[in-house]
Amino acid sequence: MTKGYWVAHVDVYDIETYQSYIDANAAQFAENGAKFLVRGGERVEVEGNARARTVVIEFPSYEQALACYDGKDYQAAKALRDPVSTGDLVIIRGYED
Q1: 0.85 exceeded by the pTM?
Q2: CA–CA dist 62, 91 (Å, integer)
Q3: How far apart are CA 48 and CA 93, in angstroms?
Q4: SS3 assignment, position 29
């Protein structure tokens, strides 16, 4: 089964409210086997432009990555995030040799 990934680039305007989004999405991520590979952190922009925060989340399968995003609990958490951030999110199937 091919893993799935969320790759997000986000600018956060209100970190306290954004923290409520982080708290609210924890159960949905756990239920779908999500593992954070990158969650902010030190970085260097060597080409192009990027938003302030980068997040990469690994899921056991591409299907679970999609299901997590579409889930009612995640959509409720996302509603907390939307007013206090701007972002780009790609859900992508992992590479298999």
Answers
A1: yes
A2: 8
A3: 24
A4: helix
